[in-house]
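A further point concerns the way the authors explain their paired sequence and structure data. The central task, working out the C-alpha cells from the amino acid sequence alone, is never made concrete. I therefore recommend that a typical entry be quoted early in the introduction. An entry of this sort, consisting of the sequence and the corresponding C-alpha cells, reads as follows:
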Amino acid sequence: MPTPTPSLPYEELGRLLSRMTGAEKHAPSATSTLDVLWVLYDQILRVSPTCLDDPERDRFVLSKGHGPMAYYAVLAAKGFLPLQELARFGAYDALLGHHPDRVLVPGVEVGSGSLGHGLPIAVGMALGLRIQERFRPRVAVLLGDAEMDEGSNHEAIAVAGRMGLDALTAIVIDNQSASHGWPGGLAGRFASEGWHAETVSGRDHAALARALSLPRRGRPQAVIATVEPKG
C-alpha cells in the first residue's frame, strides 16, 4: 500500500470527494455528514494513524455506513488512507467499498451500513471500556434521523441512559427524512432517557466543537446536527 498523505485542510475535502465516482455513492447521505466528521477528526477524537491499536484511543462508529464517501475523504485527509485509494472507490478489489470494512480500511472500527446497528454496537463498546476500567476513551457514533425509526436504537438509548454511559456520544444528522418524527423532537427523545441532548447546526464547526466538548458528567451525550432537508 502507498504511504498515506500527511493531514490536509478542510478546503481539500470537496476535491477528495470528487475522486469517488459510481452509481452507488449515496451522495446526499455522505455530504450531510461531512462537517460533523471533519470536526470529530480535526478537533474532538483522540485517534490518529499512529495509534490505531492503542487501547486508550477514542472509537468512532459510522452507523450510516451506506454513505461512506465523506468518511473516506476525512480519513484520507487525516492520513489514515492513501489518497490514491479514493479513485478506486467501489472497485471489485478496492479497500474502499460501498460500506466501510474494518478489516480493509485503516481507522475503521466497525463494518457498518445495516441501519439500526451502530448505536447498539457503540453501547457495547462503551460498556466494554467501562468493564476494562478504561475511563479516558470515548465512543462516538454517527446516525441519521431516518435511521432512528429502527427500534434497536431506542433499546440502546434506554440502556445507555439508565447505565449512565458517559463515554458514549451519539451524533444524529437530521435532514428531515424520518417517517414520523418523535414527540418533543429528537433531542427530547434522548433527554427522556437521561441523556444530555442538544441541537446545533450540522454545518457550524464552532457550534459542533463546543457541543461535542461539553463535560458529560455521568450521562451519555446526544448531539442533533441539523442540515438542509434531503431533496
